[in-house]
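Hey, quick one: can you model this chain's 3D structure?
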Amino acid sequence: MTESGKTGVFWLVASVVVALAAIVAWPRSTETDLAGLIGKPIFEKFNDVLDVSMLKIDRFDEELGQLSSFEVTRDSKTNQWSIPSHDGYPADATEQIRDAATAFLNLEILDVASEVKDDHEKFGVLEPNATSLKVGDEGVGRLVQFENDNGDVLVNLIIGSKVKDSEDQRFVRIPTQDVTYVVKFDDTPLTTKFDSWIEDNLLDLSSFDIEKIGIRDYSIVRTLQGASMQPNFDADILLAENDTWQLEKLDVYEKGKPVAQTLADDQELDGTKLGELRSALDDLKIVDVRRKPDGLSGDLKADAGFMKNDDAVRSLIARGFYPQPTEDGKGEVFAANGELIATLKNGVEYLLRFGEIDQQSMDSPEESEDGSDEDVTGVNRYLLVTARVNEATFPEPELQAVPETWEQLHPEVEAAQPPKTDQPAEPAKSEEAEKPAADELESAPKPEAEKAEEPAKPDADADADSESDADESEASEEEPEGCEAPSEDEEASDEAEPTLLLQDDSDDEAEKPAADAAEEKPADEAKPAAAAEAEEKPAAKPELTAEEKQEELEVAQEGIRKANQRKLDERNDQLEEARKKVRSLNERFADWYYVVPESEYRKIHLSRDELIKKKGTEPEGAAGAGAGPGVPGLPGGQGFPGIPGLPGN
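Sure thing. Here's the predicted structure for all 649 residues.
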């Protein structure tokens, strides 16, 4: 083959190769492929929300140039949710995770907005990445990730801006792709608000169970010597059964000493403020938490080593809590802005200590209440919570004394026995002997004139009058109907005692004194009053034998002991139930500083001016409470010397 032939073949081969290379390298149109994705799920392999064990949401603060991360994870062993981004605080996330993950199930692609990388900022789908972003960068979206227990990524998506003129459509992008999609998406469950992921009833109480509120209003200020406590007032307020508040105690401190006071005639407790406080405890909101240093127990008692740990002590002081050594070698914690005590009907008592303002939360962005991207900040305050048992709620029950003898079991038997005498009474014989012989003479009939002049005799003469009346009755029966008119003396007698003439025999019998009835009875029937009363009583039961009495005594003793034991068991069960509840609560509170909004703090932290108002008016300011250098009886007396990290130490 000639040289020209070889050259022709070479160029031919080269042309074919170039053509093939051009075909391979020619940009492939993706329009057909992208069009085929419309109407299909963006995550086809994600089909079970129960597979999710981790949710992470990254957000970028464009003004501060800060990247914030919110994460919720589930422990594969305990199946409990926690929030690693908030020091592992327990999360109430089962339903929240389900709702968040459901938003990505069958998430269909409605349209393709762009295939160009330069459009990412325009659609708000730039990836939040601290290394590639700076202050002022705009168009940064939220990165949402779901993983399973094996660490496999189930969902990885950047949520961008809303589509114009649409309320339920957003631009989204998979981080590894340049394509921006349009989807119908509700991002409400993807909140990063801390309080949306935790149990909303922090104290685990009902306002209806609160029966007493205690306010210990004092403040701790830092001085050159360390810190000084300035007490203002102590108040105990009881909620009565009729749902009204009653002031049990009010001590106002004057020069550091408590002075008992009462409400003036024109003053009353502000029931509205106390009602708001009661409701706020039922629904106490927290916006964040910080982990407490090791060495503090659930009831905030510090061990001996804790007081020597300068870092731990400074952690407390920086948040407005001041540990103070006690006589037992441990430590007690006092708060910069006083304390509140809430006592429940079941004997559980909550102690809330109010610290200083949380500077960290003031500088950190929060998601707005409506779930929008707008950041909001507010003043928040530290709070320490502990629980304890109010032993006064469980007084010792009144127990019945156990009798030791049968007579102690039946004290009424001995009391009912008649008094013992040496000689038996002879009432009939003595009564007949004491009757004078003149009684027989008095029974003789008297002349009519004498009877008219004599007054009625209620006692001994009554019998004679009765016999005289009987004689007159016989005489009247013998006389004919047309008898003579009575004499003047008889008329005078009739005018003096008209009722005697009108009474029948039954009335006469009723008016006879007891002495007449006794005379009409035979002598052997006349008995003393004591004997008569004895006859009226039912016959006594047959006398029990010693064995029967002992058996009855033992049965009664057993019954009384069981009844007493039931009372003790009931009291002890209630006390143990309260102790169990307190242990459970302190396990929950033990590790945390709580951060509450200032609005919540003002509801549960009442000043004296807010507690007391003039009758019939809106709350008005009362006289300011005096402040002193220290509270007598509290550890430290005049102050808190020796606290590390404070001026003067």
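One thing worth noting: The first strand starts at residue 54 and ends at 61.
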